[in-house]
Each structure stands twice: as C-alpha cells, then as structure tokens.
C-alpha cells in the first residue's frame, strides 16, 4: 500500500516507547506518588482526537490525569489556529501558565497543535513566554515522549516543528478517550484543498488515509468498550482513500463499518461538497447504522465569492446535492458552516447566502466572521465592507437561521424517535423536569424526563416541546 511509508514505523515508535520508559523511571525516582497530567484542547474534533493520543502516550509514561492545573506535574495545551479569536484565547491561557509555574516550579508546560506548528507563533513563544517548556507542532506529535525526556533530562526548552508536510500517521498508540458512549475515530489526517481563507492545509499537511483494516479493528474495539455513537473524523472524509491506490474509498468504508455486528450509530465529519457524490448518499440511505445526518459546509451562497474561496462548486451544484440527498433520505438533517465578510464580499452577495439558507433550511449552522490567516491566499485580499457592515450581516444571518431552526424543531413536536441517552445532566435552569440529555440520529439535542437509569442506552421517546436549540421529550414505556 502506498502509504505504509508514511505510517510511523514500529521501529520508530519503539524508540518512542523507550523514551516513555525513561520518563516513567525519572518520575518514579523523583516522586513517591503517580505523576499527574492536565490536558486542555482548543479547536476541532481532530484536535480532541490528537489530545486523546497524547493522553495515550502520557499513560504509557505512567501519568494519571487530573482536572485542575494545581494538581498537575505536566500541563498540555493543544491549540487551534483557525481564527484569530482562537489564537488570542490560547495566548490568554498561556499567560495563566506563568502563575501555575510560580506555584509549582517543577511543572512542565507544553504547547502543541495547529497554532504551535506555525513558525511565527513558535518564535513568539520562544521570546515572550519563557515559562513554556516544550513547543511542538502537529508533525512532531509522535516525538512527544522524546521531547519530554529531553526537557527533563537536559533541562533545556524544546522547540520541535520538524517533519515534512506529507506528515505521518501514528499507529499502535492506545488513545485515552473520554468515558461515555460517544467516541471520535480519525480515519485520515491533513487537507489538500487550500480553500483560500484556511490555515489547515498549512498546519496539518497533506491528506493521508489510515489503513481500512486498522480502522475496522479500532471500531470493533470501541464497540467492545461500550461506545455506541462513533464519529469518523477527517477534514474532508470524502477524499478518504485517494492515497490508498483503490484499496478502499469512503462509501466502501461506510459499508464495511455498517456490516460490523452490533447496535451502534456511525456518523462522520467533515464532508466537502465538491467531493460528495450520489453514491455517498445512496450508501448512507442503504446503511441502517450510518446516521441520516450530514455536516456539509457551504461557506456562502454567492458563486463569485465561492470561486474566490477556491471551494470549487457553485450554489446550484450545492443545491443539487442537497436535493438528491433528501430524495433518498427524507429525514436527513443537514448542518453547515458559513463565513460572513470574506474579502470583497458585498452586501448584495451576502444576500445570496441568506437565499441559500431559506432554500436549504439547514437544521443549524456554525457561523463565523472572516478572520485573515497569515500565509493564506485571502490574508491580504482587500475588503469592501466595514467591520460594522459585516457585523450587521452576521446578525441578520443568525436571526434568519434561528427562525428556521425554531420552525424545523417545532415540526418535531408529537414525533416518536429513538435516542441515545447521555450521561450529561440538563445544565440549564429552565425546564428542570427534563433532566437527561440525549441525541437523535440526526444529532439533535433532546432533554428527557423519565430517563433516569437509561444512561448509555437507546430509548424510544416522544417529543413534547421544542425551542430553537433543543427538543424536550419523555420516554415511551
Ligand atoms: N475541513 C472542514 C472545515 C474545517 S474548519 C471543511 O472544509 O468543511 C471549520 C470551519 O471554520 C470552516 O468550514 C469555515 O467555515 C471556518 N473557517 C475556516 N477558516 C476561517 C477563517 N479564516 N475565518 C473564518 N472562518 C474560517
Ligand atoms: Fe480548510 Fe478547505 Fe481544507 Fe476544510 S477543506 S480544512 S476549509 S482548506
Ligand atoms: Fe483548529 Fe487545527 Fe482543527 S486549526 S479547527 S484545531 S485542524
């Protein structure tokens, strides 16, 4: 298989395992208790999944996990670079590490992930944040044990942005996942699409797919561990397998997963519209364990802006996809991402996005104001709208979507559905009788009454009330 050379070889991981043992020995000598780690994750599910791998490596080094920095011997901040706001939050957070370090000078502080992969960020940390001990980028994830050992044994700060953009795939590390019944499973890494606004291809490198056999094995293991709702992850899952020389593509992977025995749900994100095919939707419709639910980011509704974004589809093509998907899955839920205020977007062009919302009627949206990212094509494209105009458009967008979400949710009242009951309690102060959280096949949030003791199980429910953000229901005996 063409990508075996990109899988971090067992030999290489063997080296890292040896570093794990060395770190473990150092802490055993130094402490008369188990060393503790505190991890913090910004950004998307891919980053969450990376943190689970990091936790896997920490466990191999003997660490336990704590919920507060005060109890920690090491703190790891896994960062996101998608928008300026995300980076500013991280800088704010890194500032707090200085206090923690004052309280505990032995504390090891680590910054990693997408933001850390950028040279200008690493430089800034090097020069202005002396209390950060280790900085490593996404390509150096597999060398975390070696870098940690180097910091402890040599006492010097470590900056590791090495690794080429073709990247690598780490196998044979057992991720330490959150307890519960929902899990992430990365099926591929990186992105080849270079949307003109987006930093991801620069900080995560080129697309590389995991071996389907390895994915199936990991999936089965998740089922054995009790997970029942599993999300396959990739920046563009529709191009899964493009680098596997015809061994398996995404619809095929879904078929194979669907054939695994057991009562489970599988979903995926994200799908790029330019690579979504009728075959994908036919497969989703046919496979009963694949949720009839899709996150299909459209970004905007205007063809000129879509072209400038380098999205490689038109509004019309997007609508054709949605219409086809709904024709084979009438109950399909669709969510999307929208960017408001892309450079050059006019108020008239923005109205095409509003039209897109009215035409598609998304279940819900993730909405963003454009944020220029250094190194991307759109970084210095000129604006025609002022900040205030962009803000006004953003608010109009929210208003329209909130109405649509509300209208869609209202149609659920009286319906019978099957949900997976969560561990989480209702954290809201209203509607207190609906104590449990649950998710529908379409990933709609339903607060439940009468669901005590059903955590982690499927339940048949009836919807009693609705709001813009959630549904409320009770268990049918
Ligand atoms: N791979 C996914 C998206 C990952 S980023 C996809 O192509 O759909 C998640 C979302 O962040 C994007 O869909 C986009 O809406 C938003 N985003 C990315 N870069 C941005 C930027 N520079 N400014 C504002 N929003 C951005
Ligand atoms: Fe970014 Fe586009 Fe790749 Fe998504 S597909 S990660 S938006 S470049
Ligand atoms: Fe952020 Fe990296 Fe994800 S930039 S959105 S954490 S891929």
Number of distinct helices: 13
CATH architecture assignment of the largest domain: 3-Layer(aba) Sandwich
CATH superfamily of the largest domain: Methylthiotransferase, N-terminal domain
Number of strands: 19
* Basic shape: globular
In the CATH scheme, the class of the largest domain would be Alpha Beta
Low-pLDDT sequence parts: none
**What is the CA-atom radius of gyration, in angstroms?**
23 Å
Count of individual domains? 4
Description:
With 477 residues, this protein is α/β, with parallel strands linked by helices. The mean pLDDT is 94. It contains 13 helices and 19 strands. The longest helix is centred in the C-terminal third of the chain and has 24 residues, at 387-410. The structure holds S-adenosyl-L-homocysteine, iron/sulfur cluster (SF4) and FE3-S4 cluster.
Task: Summarize this entry quickly.
This protein has helices at 10-30, 45-60, 84-103, 119-128, 144-154, 200-204, 212-224, 250-258, 278-286, 303-308, 315-328, 347-360, 387-410; strands at residues 36-41, 64-65, 74-79, 108-113, 134-136, 158-160, 182-186, 188-189, 208-209, 229-233, 265-269, 293-295, 333-340, 364-369, 416-425, 436-439, 445-449, 458-466, 471-475. It has 477 residues and is of the alpha/beta class.
């Amino acid at each position: 298989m063409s990508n075996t050379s990109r899988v971090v070889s067992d030999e290489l991981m063997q080296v890292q395992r040896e570093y794990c043992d060395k770190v473990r020995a150092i802490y055993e000598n130094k402490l008369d208790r188990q060393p503790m780690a505190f991890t913090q994750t910004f950004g998307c599910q891919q980053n969450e999944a990376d943190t689970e791998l990091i936790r896997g490596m920490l466990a191999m080094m003997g660490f336990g996990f704590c919920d507060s920095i005060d109890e920690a011997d090491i703190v790891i901040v896994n960062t996101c670079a998608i928008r300026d706001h995300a980076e500013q939050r991280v800088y704010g957070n890194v500032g707090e590490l200085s206090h923690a370090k004052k309280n505990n000078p032995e504390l090891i502080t680590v910054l990693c992930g997408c933001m850390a992969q950028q040279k200008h960020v690493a430089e800034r940390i090097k020069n202005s944040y002396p209390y950060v001990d280790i900085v490593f980028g996404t390509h150096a994830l597999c060398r975390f044990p070696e870098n940690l050992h180097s910091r402890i044994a040599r006492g010097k700060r470590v900056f590791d942005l090495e690794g080429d953009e073709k990247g690598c795939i780490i196998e044979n590390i057992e991720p330490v996942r959150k307890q519960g019944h929902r899990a992430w499973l990365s099926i591929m890494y990186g992105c080849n699409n270079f949307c003109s606004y987006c930093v991801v291809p620069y900080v995560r490198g080129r697309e590389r797919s995991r071996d389907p056999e390895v994915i199936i094995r990991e999936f089965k293991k998740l089922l054995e561990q009790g997970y029942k709702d599993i999300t396959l992850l990739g920046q563009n899952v529709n191009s899964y397998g493009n680098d596997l020389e015809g061994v398996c593509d995404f619809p095929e992977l879904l078929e194979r997963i669907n054939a695994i025995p057991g009562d489970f749900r599988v979903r995926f994100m994200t799908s790029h519209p330019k690579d979504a095919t009728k075959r994908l939707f036919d497969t989703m419709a046919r496979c009963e364990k694949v949720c009839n639910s899709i996150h299909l980011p459209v970004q905007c509704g205007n063809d000129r802006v879509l072209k400038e974004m380098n999205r490689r589809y038109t509004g019309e093509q997007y609508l054709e996809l949605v219409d086809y998907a709904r024709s084979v899955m009438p109950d399909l839920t669709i969510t999307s991402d929208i960017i408001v205020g892309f450079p050059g977007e006019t108020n008239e062009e923005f109205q095409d996005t509003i039209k897109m919302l009215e035409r598609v009627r998304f279940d819900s949206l993730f909405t963003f104001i454009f944020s220029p990212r250094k190194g991307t094509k759109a970084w210095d494209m000129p604006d025609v709208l002022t900040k205030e105009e962009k803000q006004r458009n953003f608010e109009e967008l929210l208003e329209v979507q909130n109405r649509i979400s509300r209208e869609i949710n209202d149609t659920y009242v009286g319906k019978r559905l099957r949900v997976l009951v969560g561990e989480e309690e209702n954290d809201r102060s209203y509607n207190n009788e609906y104590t449990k959280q649950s998710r529908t096949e379409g990933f709609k949030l339903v607060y439940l009454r009468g669901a005590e003791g059903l955590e982690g199980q499927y339940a048949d429910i009836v919807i009693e009330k609705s709001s813009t953000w959630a549904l409320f229901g009770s268990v049918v005996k």
